[in-house]
Design a protein that fits this description.
The protein has helices at about 15-25, 35-40, 40-55, 60-75, 85-100, 105-125, 145-155, 170-185, 190-195, 225-235, 255-270, 275-290, 295-300, 305-315, 320-330, and strands at about 200, 205-210, 215-220. With about 325 residues, the protein is mainly alpha-helical. The protein folds into two domains: about 15-125, Orthogonal Bundle (DNA polymerase, domain 1); about 145-330, Orthogonal Bundle (hpI Integrase, Chain A), CATH 1.10.443. A hairpin with a 4-residue loop joins strand 1 and strand 2 (about 205-210). The longest helix is centred in the N-terminal third of the chain and has 18 residues, at about 60-75. The chain is globular.
């Protein structure tokens, strides 16, 4: 039992009769108190998020956890939950609700299950121990081929139209082209890119120092063409902001802006596939693997703690597999 919880709601393996017996020993308990009334969930949620921040969880992860726990709390407020068994049943109904009404993916159901279980464990409410997280689906990630990446990066190089002039000035074109080149050549996450600072760049070594997930530092590389673009971009930029990529107000860009910009560039380049910052990261990993780079080196560049995560990230076409297989000369 966590000290922060209300002592009038028992969290050992009990049923409604246990709660009634417990009520006789507690003058403050009214015999009909449910979990929502017995615990101050907003405070518990805040405590949990603070704990995640102390543990160096990324801002995006904390935001996701907050959303998941808050949504389940709102669902519980509409339920009659006077015992642990009823809370368990409410959770199962919530999962059914997400599947039927919200039509969420299996992977999201997995995430909800894991996050809610971790939250209850943290606050000392041992309710969902018997609940097992469903299996995640492991589909091969989509990626662009090399020509599509080139067309995307160079989408506005020759964009000329009298009827529909480009809304992008020369400086914006240079900045956005550099964003695309750096996302692809370094395999950065979108959150890492928008918070990238000029001091993180080592132009001599062509490296970037990144503070990634879990506040872990890693070094990534960028190619010679990207280096040339960075130098030109910094020479033409008048703002003295510490951030590399900024808007007209001098603030760092938002992930949403970059996502929308990439979508527009893909449209101009004639790419029919869905293109996102994450797909550029997939493409980076896939092309490295396709060209013979060891998967453990790719793991380091992507900043993955586990090799299994990198293996999911990378996909190789069958022709590449055949070439590698034939070179192995098994007989």
């Amino acid at each position: 039992m966590n000290q922060r919880s209300n002592q009038t709601w028992k969290t050992s393996k009990s049923n409604i009769d246990d709660l009634k017996r417990f009520a006789n020993e507690q003058s403050t308990y009214n015999g009909q108190q449910n979990i929502i009334e017995a615990f101050n969930f907003p405070d518990l949620i805040e405590d949990y998020l603070i704990e995640l921040e102390i543990r160096n969880y990324s801002r995006n992860t904390i935001k996701t956890y907050h959303s998941i726990i808050t949504n389940f709390y709102k669902f519980l407020q509409k339920e009659e939950v006077y015992s642990e068994q009823l809370v368990l049943r409410a959770f199962k109904r919530y999962i059914r609700y997400l599947k039927r009404e919200k039509n969420v993916s299996q992977n999201y159901i997995y995430l909800v299950t894991v996050v809610v279980k971790k939250f209850f464990e943290f606050v000392g409410i041992d309710i969902l121990q018997e609940v097992k997280a469903p299996k995640r689906t492991k589909s091969l990630p989509k990626s662009l081929n090399e020509d599509e990446v080139k067309n995307l990066i160079n989408a506005l190089d020759d964009y000329q139209s009298v009827d529909t002039p480009s809304p992008y000035s020369e400086s914006l074109r240079l900045r956005n082209k550099l964003i695309l080149a750096l996302l692809y050549s370094s395999g950065l996450r979108i959150s890492e890119l928008v918070h990238l600072k000029i001091d993180n760049l080592d132009m001599e070594e062509r490296t970037v120092r990144i503070r990634g997930k879990g506040e872990k530092d890693r070094i990534v590389l960028f190619d010679q063409n990207t280096k040339v673009m960075i130098i030109e971009y910094l020479q033409k930029r008048s703002n003295s902001s510490e951030y590399l990529f900024i808007n007209r107000s001098g603030n760092h860009l938002t992930p949403r802006y970059v996502q929308m910009m990439i979508k527009e560039y893909a449209r101009i380049a004639g790419i029919k596939k869905k293109v996102t910052p994450h797909i550029l990261r997939h493409s980076f990993a896939t092309h490295l693997l396709k060209n013979g780079v060891d998967i453990r080196a790719i793991q380091q560049l992507l900043g993955h703690s586990n090799l299994s995560t990198t293996q999911i990230y990378t996909s190789v076409d069958m022709q590449t597999l055949k070439n590698v297989y034939d070179r192995a000369k098994l007989v």
